[in-house]
């Protein structure tokens, strides 16, 4: 299937989505969101996909939501359309998803990267929430996910000044999992995704669900959720296979069930 704003391919068990609006530094417009949601729904339903990588261009992962598209909105339009709410479907994707970020990841671009399970950044990456310079605030989760990732002080600094932080600062602050040379970015992200996709899919999905629970609940509830997910995995064929393979000193052949 052809998309106007995305390039989509599969590499083995990995789905690779490249944001493709170079003329607008991959600004996130309605069409891109619709296309991305469609692609992710396809990957969600495809048993052959075990992980996804989202990337952009060398210059920009994404320079934010499309300002030209938002410019004419009034309050009523934003409320009635529930502007930015459609991105919650992207954040709700249940298989592991990695953001491979080069260049600008600003506003909605930074927020999209944070919807992924972790971020691998090129040394050239620049993160920021510059919405304040436009007379608005982040609307795709920036004030919430950034605070959870960086803490209040750094988030206030970024959100209130609108400044950008480079990859080294983003890694030091805990936003980014790894920083790599620009030419290694995609290979590193695809290798990580391939590795994840080789594990039992129920276990990677439950690992993701359990870690995400830590963001949404108190410790005792999170522990209970983890324990139940942990117990549930003993009902899978892959748990039998994984442990048998360890004992028999061979590689496991997971069937993802
Ligand atoms: C989702 C919410 C609710 O949280 C809100 C948001 O995301 S609001 C958007 C937040 N993002 C920004 O404010 C960043 C806007 N862009 C820039 O500041 C600059 O483009 C830059 C610093 C990223 C790069 O600057 P430069 O290299 O000088 O390139 P430009 O000439 O500025 O851009 C090239 C081209 O892309 C268009 N562009 C860039 N960003 C956006 C955007 N977010 N929306 C729409 N269009 C964008 C820019 O207008 C240029 O196109 P032309 O005007 O030349 O046709």
Automatic annotation (TrEMBL):
Presence of keyword Lipid metabolism: yes
GO biological process: fatty acid beta-oxidation
SUPFAM superfamilies, A to Z: ClpP/crotonase (SSF52096)
CDD domains for this protein: crotonase-like
UniProt-listed Gene3D superfamilies: 2-enoyl-CoA Hydratase, Chain A, domain 1, Lyase 2-enoyl-coa Hydratase, Chain A, domain 2
Catalytic activities: a (3S)-3-hydroxyacyl-CoA = a (2E)-enoyl-CoA + H2O; a 4-saturated-(3S)-3-hydroxyacyl-CoA = a (3E)-enoyl-CoA + H2O
EC number: 4.2.1.17
Keyword annotations from UniProtKB, A to Z: Fatty acid metabolism, Lipid metabolism, Lyase
Molecular function GO terms recorded: enoyl-CoA hydratase activity
InterPro entries: ClpP/crotonase-like_dom_sf (IPR029045), Enoyl-CoA_hyd/isom_CS (IPR018376), Enoyl-CoA_hydra/iso (IPR001753), Enoyl-CoA_hydra_C (IPR014748)
Function, as annotated: Could possibly oxidize fatty acids using specific components.
Family: Belongs to the enoyl-CoA hydratase/isomerase family.
Descriptive protein name: enoyl-CoA hydratase
Annotated source species: Shinella zoogloeoides
């Amino acid at each position: 299937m052809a998309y106007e704003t995305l390039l989509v391919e599969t590499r083995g068990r990995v789905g690779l989505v490249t944001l493709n609006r170079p003329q607008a530094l991959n600004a996130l417009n309605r069409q891109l969101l619709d296309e991305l949601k469609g692609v992710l729904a396809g990957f969600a339903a495809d048993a052959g996909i075990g992980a996804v990588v989202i990337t952009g261009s060398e210059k920009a992962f994404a320079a934010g939501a499309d300002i030209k598209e938002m410019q004419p909105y009034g309050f009523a339009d934003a409320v009635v359309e529930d502007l930015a709410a459609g991105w919650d479907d992207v954040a709700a994707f249940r298989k592991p998803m990695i953001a491979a970020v080069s260049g600008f990841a600003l506003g909605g671009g930074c927020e999209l990267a944070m919807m992924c399970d972790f971020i691998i950044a090129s040394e050239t990456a620049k993160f920021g929430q510059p919405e304040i310079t436009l007379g608005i605030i982040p609307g795709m989760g920036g004030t919430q996910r950034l605070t959870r990732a960086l803490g209040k002080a750094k988030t206030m600094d970024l959100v209130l000044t609108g400044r950008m932080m480079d990859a080294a600062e983003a890694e030091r602050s805990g936003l980014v999992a790894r920083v790599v040379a620009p030419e290694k970015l995609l290979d590193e992200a695809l290798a990580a995704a391939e590795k994840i996709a080789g594990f039992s899919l129920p276990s990677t999905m439950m690992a993701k669900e359990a870690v995400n629970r830590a963001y949404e609940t108190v410790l005792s509830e999170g522990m209970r959720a983890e324990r139940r997910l942990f117990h549930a995995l003993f009902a899978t064929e892959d748990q039998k296979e994984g442990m048998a393979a360890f004992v028999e000193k061979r590689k496991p052949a997971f069937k993802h069930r």
